[in-house]
Structure formats: C-alpha cells, structure tokens
Write a structure and sequence with these properties.
By secondary structure, the chain is mainly alpha-helical. The chain is built from 17 helices and no strands.
C-alpha cells in the first residue's frame, strides 16, 4: 500500500518553474513548425487542382476543380526545365564538393590556434558575413565585380589577366558559378564551422597527449584523431547536404541574377518563383515544388541507407 501511494505521489508531482520554462520553450518551437512548416503544406493541394492564373487562391483550395496529375504531366513538356535541372544539379554538386569541406578544414585550422584572443577574433570575423542577408551580400558581390566600378578588374589588371582597354565582365554567365561558390564559402564558412568546433571540443585531450608522446605531429593528430572523432557529425551534415541537391536559397540566387547570366543562374528555386508569382501559374509551380520535395526526401533516405550500410552511421 505504501509503495502504491509513493508511486501515485511521484506521478502527480507538480511542475517546477524550470519545468514550465522548458515546456514553454519547447511549445514555441512546435508552434513555429506548425505555422511555418506544416500549415503551408495545405498549399500542395494546388498541384492537383486547376489554379493557374486564379484570382482567389483560397477559393481554389476550397472549391477548385481537381485535375489529377495534369500539372505534373506539364512538367515533361517544359523545354526549359531540363536546362534548369542541369543548372541546379551541376551548381549544387560543385557547392557540395567545395563548400562542404570548407567549414571542416576551417574548424581544424582554428583548433590548432593556441592564442585564445587571436582564435576568438578569427571566429568572430569569419562569422560576421552570415548575419548579412543574401539580398545585401549579393548586392555587395555585384558591386565588387562590376566591370567599370568594381575592384576586381583592377586586381586582375595588376596581375596581367586583363587590360584597361579590355576589362573582364564578371557579370557574364560563364563566371556566375565561380562567383556563387566563392561567395557561399565566404558567407558560410565561419558559421558552418561552429558545429565542428563544438564536436572537436568534446574530444578527450588525453588522446592528443598520448599521440604526442608517441611522436605524432599536428597534421597526424588531426588526421588520425580529430577527423575520425567528428566523423558522425560530418556524416549527418553530408547526408543533409545531399538531400538539398535540388534545393537552393531563393534570395541567394535572385540577388545575383541578371539578364546576362540568367542561362547559368536560373535554378529551380528562382524558376518556381517566376512561374508562381510572375506568370501566376500557381498550380504548375506547386507541382514543381512538390516534385522537388519528394526527390529531396528520396535522396535523404537513399543516402542514409548507403551510409548505414558502409559506415554504420546515419541521420536516423
């Protein structure tokens, strides 16, 4: 009887002030997901309805005519879509090759800095571009690469890559991918290294001391100890990046787009925006966005299965 009373009392334990604060913070996150992630999913119904150029989208969602998979069939007849998918995959694969290792390498280099103030200074400066929106950051890149007023043509002229009479127009389509890769690295390397720095901080110092006693230098300690210990974190972020091979930040690309580089800068994110808001093809844009999301989920599942099979690690 006493045990039953104790168990009942334990179950009816009142929440402390700390418990209420934790619960409130958790519910704020749940509310954010419901409002900005799950509620907008109702809009995917447009992909199965005749909503192109409609005046009232809400009315289409409620009482619009169902058209089955006609909007998805229209994707197969879109001549521009193939080039846009090639742009998206090609650029995202290059971003994966160059941008994904950059925060890891940067974190490894920062970890080797012994001077605390210098280390914090580097981290602060490298993280600052992350807090600038892509709209402003893209405008800065466009201004710096301008053929007449930018600073890059004088630099290229100084090293003999161009002349004052024949400047290089860095706004042309052939230079867009290079500009985007460099801009993404500059903007994201500092912020992206935070997670890896936290993972490195959790490694036992005894491992480094033992390796140093055995005669291992800094490079050997980084390769043999640091990288294997943060491999689970690297795996998780790699799988998440693979799932985004068809996804891009709209602001990131739209801020640096112009009529000259459109053939190389048009990706699915900006194409969906143009179809949905400029041409008012709401149902077509919804169908294209839904296909992108489904393929992204499949990429995540497939890459997670392969990762678990070969490395024993995965996202879930």
């Amino acid at each position: 009887m006493t045990d039953f009373v104790e168990k009942t009392t334990r179950k009816r334990k009142k929440w402390t002030r700390n418990d209420k604060q934790v619960y409130f913070m958790a519910m704020c996150g749940v509310a954010f997901l419901c409002v900005f992630a799950y509620l907008p999913m109702v809009g995917t119904l447009l992909a199965f309805k005749e909503g192109d150029r409609a005046i009232d989208i809400y009315q289409v969602l409620l009482t619009g005519k169902w058209c089955g998979f006609d909007n998805f069939a229209n994707l197969l007849t879109d001549r521009k879509l193939t080039d846009i998918v090639i742009n998206t995959l090609g650029l995202n694969l290059l971003l994966l090759v160059f941008n994904f290792p950059a925060p890891i390498i940067f974190a490894l280099l920062i970890n080797e800095v012994t001077h605390l103030r210098y280390k914090k200074g580097i981290q602060t400066v490298s993280m600052f571009p992350h807090f600038i929106s892509w709209t402003i950051f893209g405008a800065i890149i466009v201004a710096l690469t301008d053929m007449t007023t930018g600073i890059f043509n004088p630099i290229l002229e100084a090293i003999g890559l161009c002349s004052q009479e024949n400047p290089i127009n860095l706004g042309e389509a052939q230079y867009f991918w290079v500009e985007m890769i460099i801009a993404s690295i500059v903007k994201g390397v500092g912020w992206g290294s935070i997670v890896y720095m936290a993972a490195i901080a959790g490694i036992s110092p005894e491992l480094y001391e033992a390796a140093q006693i055995d005669g291992a230098n800094r490079f050997q300690r980084a390769v043999k100890i640091t990288i294997p210990m943060i491999a689970p974190t690297i795996t998780v972020f790699l799988l998440l990046q693979i799932s985004k091979l068809l996804g891009n930040s709209y602001e990131q690309f739209y801020s640096m787009q112009n009529a000259i580089n459109l053939e190389r800068s048009e990706v699915l994110a900006t194409y969906i925006y143009r179809k949905g808001f400029t041409q008012r093809r709401y149902s077509y844009a919804a169908a294209l966005g839904l296909c992108e999301s489904i393929i992204s989920v499949l990429l995540l599942l497939f890459s997670n299965i392969l990762s678990k099979k070969f490395t024993g690690r995965g996202v879930f």
